[in-house]
Write a structure and sequence with these properties.
Largest sheet: 5 strands, parallel
CATH class of the largest domain: Alpha Beta
Distance between the termini: 40 Å
Strand order of the largest sheet: 3-2-1-4-16
Order of helices and strands: HEHEHHEHEEEHEHEHEEEEEEEEHH
Number of helices: 10
CATH topology of the largest domain: FAD/NAD(P)-binding domain
Number of strands: 16
Length: about 350
């Protein structure tokens, strides 16, 4: 939705945010007065967007959801992966208060399969929803990746949030980039989060290497612009081939690329330019190549099928939407479709809740 040239786009998102904030400030809350308890209970594993979306629909229909999460606060990557300069954490905290007032119970700091067996949930609850996200990072698979000073994007971002909010278990868990020469590998929004977090920590320099050109970056153009304005240097058409160092990171070897023929997804493949090797000095490397599902070892024990990419098989097109191969277990969000948008995870959690309601005949 745009006006004439010079005015720019109407900020629909900001307007909706303002309306919602005003409503909450004035005490507006979901009206649960007509909800009748069914006596049914559902265990929700994961307090991220999918799990919260599922719990919201369940409680509005008289089903009591109990949400388990291994982290000390709800939100999943909303809380621990997205930096505060993009999402203020009080937004998530307020959502927790609203959901608790509605009747949602949270049991945080509990990891299913470690602190509590899955069998206990199946025994005590009428259904189980899996919304555990994608937390396994994709490696660069280059020499030197195991050197001290190389970090995964998510480990870095979570450590920063834990430090700022007093969640860290040890001061040694904090990954501090102050005074360091930082190179971030990747071109998505997570890479931009790492770039901008390192800037705020006082890094000596922050460079971002991406194997395609700026026009083909998968991340938000606004995020790239913000990173540039804050001092991040971009190394376009650069592909990492080796992390250099003797007992620690000292630099990263890059090669220049040029874009060739399109791949199966229509994106032009980066091709290495012969003789283009260069070494960029660095003290810290952050790998931000994306994430993949983390299928639990106990899935097989309970007949929960996964596909060749490790995603839980729980299709929406069936009698009970997002039901897994175990009839009592449902799943949605990133662990079903792979890394995607927050709104998509919320939607799938809500759709899975409808499938659970059908399964419970509610």
């Amino acid at each position: 939705c745009t006006l004439n040239d010079g005015f720019g786009a109407v900020t629909i998102g900001a307007i909706e945010r303002y309306i919602a904030d005003k409503a909450f400030d004035q005490g507006w809350r979901p009206d649960m007065s007509a909800v009748e308890a069914t006596g049914k209970r559902v265990a929700v594993i994961g307090a991220g967007p999918a799990g919260l979306g599922c719990a919201d629909i369940l409680v509005r229909n008289g089903v009591a959801p109990v949400v388990f999460d291994r982290h000390p606060e709800i939100g999943g990557l909303l809380t621990f992966g997205i930096p505060e300069f993009k999402l203020e954490k009080h937004v998530v905290t307020r959502r927790r208060e609203i959901l608790e007032d509605m009747g949602v119970e949270f049991r945080l700091g509990v990891e299913i399969g470690k602190d509590l067996p899955m069998q206990q949930l199946l025994d005590e609850y009428d259904a189980v929803f899996l919304g555990m996200g994608t937390y396994t990072y994709m490696q660069a698979d280059i020499p030197g990746e195991d050197l001290p000073g190389v970090y995964s994007a998510l480990d870095y971002l979570i450590a920063n949030i834990n430090h700022r909010h007093g969640f860290e278990k040890s001061a040694e868990d904090f990954i501090d980039m102050a005074g360091q020469r930082v190179v971030v590998l990747g071109g998505g929004d997570t890479a931009m989060d790492c770039n901008r977090t390192a800037i705020r920590q006082g890094a000596q320099s922050v460079s971002c290497a991406y194997r395609r050109d700026e026009a083909n970056m998968p991340g938000s153009k606004r995020e790239v612009l913000n990173a540039k304005e804050e001092g991040v240097q971009f190394l376009w058409n650069r592909q990492p081939v080796e992390i250099i160092g003797d007992g620690k990171v000292e630099g990263i070897k890059l090669v220049t690329t040029q874009l060739g023929e399109a791949d199966e997804r229509g994106r032009r493949r980066p091709e290495i330019v012969a003789g283009s090797e260069e070494v960029v000095p660095a003290d810290r490397i952050v790998v931000a190549f994306g994430f993949r599902p983390s299928p639990q070892p106990w899935f097989a024990d309970f007949g929960i099928d996964i596909d060749e990419r490790g995603r839980v098989v729980a299709p929406p097109e069936q009698a009970c939407k997002h039901q897994t191969s175990n009839p009592k277990v449902f799943a949605g969000g990133d662990m079903v479709r792979g890394s995607d948008l927050v709104v998509t995870a919320i939607y799938e959690g809500r759709q899975a809740a409808e499938g659970i309601l059908d399964y419970l005949n509610v």
